Amino acid sequence: MDTDKRCGDEIIRVAVFGPGYGESIVINIPQVGWGVIDSCLKKVHNENINPALRYLKQNNASSIAFLILSHPHKDHYEGLDQIIDEYVGRIDRICYYSGDGIREYRDYLIRKEILDSPGFRSFSHLFKKFEEAKNKGSQIIRIAERTEILRKKMCGGNSVEIFGLSPSAESVEKYKKLLFEAIPKNEGDVFNFLTDSQHNLISAAIWCSVGNTRLILGSDVEIGEDDRTGWKGIVSNIDCPNLSARLIKVSHHGSSNAFFKPAWEKHSGETKPVAVVTPYNKLADPLPRKTDLDLIAQYTDDIYITDKAKYQKQKKIYEPIVVKNTRGIRDWKCIIDDPNVGSVEIVLSMETGSVQEYRIMEPAHKYAVGVGDS
Amino acid sequence: MLSNTLAKEFIHHHKTLPNSNRLISSPANLTDITASPQTTPITEKIIHFENIDRNSRIQEREVGWWIGKVTAIREETFDAVMEDLSGNVNVVELEKELIDPHEQDLLFINSKFTYAISRIDKPDGREYKTKFSFSSRRKWLKEYEIEAKRLADEFFPDSLLSL
Hints:
Chain A has 374 residues and is of the alpha/beta class. Chain A contains 11 helices and 20 strands. Chain A has a single domain, classed as 4-Layer Sandwich (Metallo-beta-lactamase, Chain A), CATH 3.60.15.10. Chain A is 25% helix and 27% strand. In chain A, the strands form 4 sheets. In chain A, strands 8-7-6-3-2-1-18-19 form an 8-stranded mixed sheet, with helices on one face. An 8-stranded mixed sheet of chain A has the order 9-10-11-12-13-14-15-20, with no helix packed on it. A two-stranded antiparallel ribbon of chain A has the order 4-5. In chain A, strand 4 and strand 5 form a beta hairpin. In chain A, helix 3 runs parallel beside helix 5 and helix 4 (102-115) runs parallel beside helix 6. Chain A is globular. Chain B has one domain. In chain B, 13% of the residues lie in helices and 31% in strands. In chain B, strand 4 and strand 5 (125-134) form a beta hairpin. Chain B starts with 5 loop residues before the first helix and ends in an 8-residue tail after the last helix. Chain B has a 5-stranded antiparallel sheet with strand order 3-2-1-4-5. Strand 17 (329-335) of chain A pairs antiparallel with strand 3 of chain B, so a sheet runs across the interface.
């Protein structure tokens, strides 16, 4: 059955994927269709699995109403090209950050590629896919604060509206300035690498309202330095919509950098929301951390995590002679590549916003509040 | 299907860059010249090798190779994520003493490095050696401008800036 634009099903389906590096969200809204926010890949037995694309196919999605790239970070766009390839000509609109500063970002990535590491070509490949989709009829929208992703419309007796909560004009300006300063211009100039937090300045959080149900998808938005950037900027914006929500995709993998108390007070203002966290395992101390989850747990009883970092001893992977002859390594953990792709799928009522169903695919799991994530 | 492993991408990346002489040989392109088989059979000629000391032969082979990325810096150590050619991802804490004094300024969050273990067979025995080197360059040279322009024109022309 084509579930693209089912009428009469008064439910919203949200599936969140986050295999430990990267994240992707797929939404189905009656009479609107399918939406995809970001994309990720999971390597299993030398094969790259695209969980969002697989989910769309499993659900017989024949078209995509909106496809969003929340910000140009590899862990948010890996595999987006595959989704475009599969649905090219059948994607209504593509929304991505492409405002002021995109030229600087291109020039920054080129210089980073020459001096340090790859990344530019996969980024440029994605933009070529956007162009291809545009030539096949997709509408291209530059995403920013208050950008309309889906024009307010009635769906049965319910209104549907989706727009960006960020980045603000000030964030974009700040980011552009940082990029410009980082780009070496003259012989001997030192390349100033931007930090991940600086790149997150242009992350787009998404506000989605369907009937009486609101979802907030936080991307990698961090707290912000002032009341014009990050969550501080979102909350203090006079035009800020109602931030109470039934479902929160916790921003920036649940890090302390992204936890902003006033935002969570608003999220839980009407009812305790369900929170979904996508981990970031490629750190010595992976995200999310227990201390950060316990902060979030003050505002929700239901925290779901899409993956679980597991490690094994190096001697289980490498030959003894290799392990024995390493020098200068104090601590060494090997990440176990779980062959399963975890996902958290939540079915919500449009009418009441109540959760109708949870489908948790391991290694995704529910965080035991107060006990931890052993 | 495209592989997304950092290590493979890194090797491809460095092969396509100008002045990629800082790349440590990876196992994929490591050749052991002294051990290569002779392809043309020598039949009738008698060849006299002069000044060849068979005992001086040294063979070196990399038995472990990782590409790493710095994720945190502490007083005496730094954290990194290292990936091998099979795609295994390792989270490690490394001692700063590994870093060559000339490369100290290349230690920063997100900087890339290679970590390798070589097996060296010498006439007097076998030994193992650890090699650590940052793969980042920090300073911009005028000659890179041509490559920067080529990359922009080929992969991201101005037309893509305003879709």
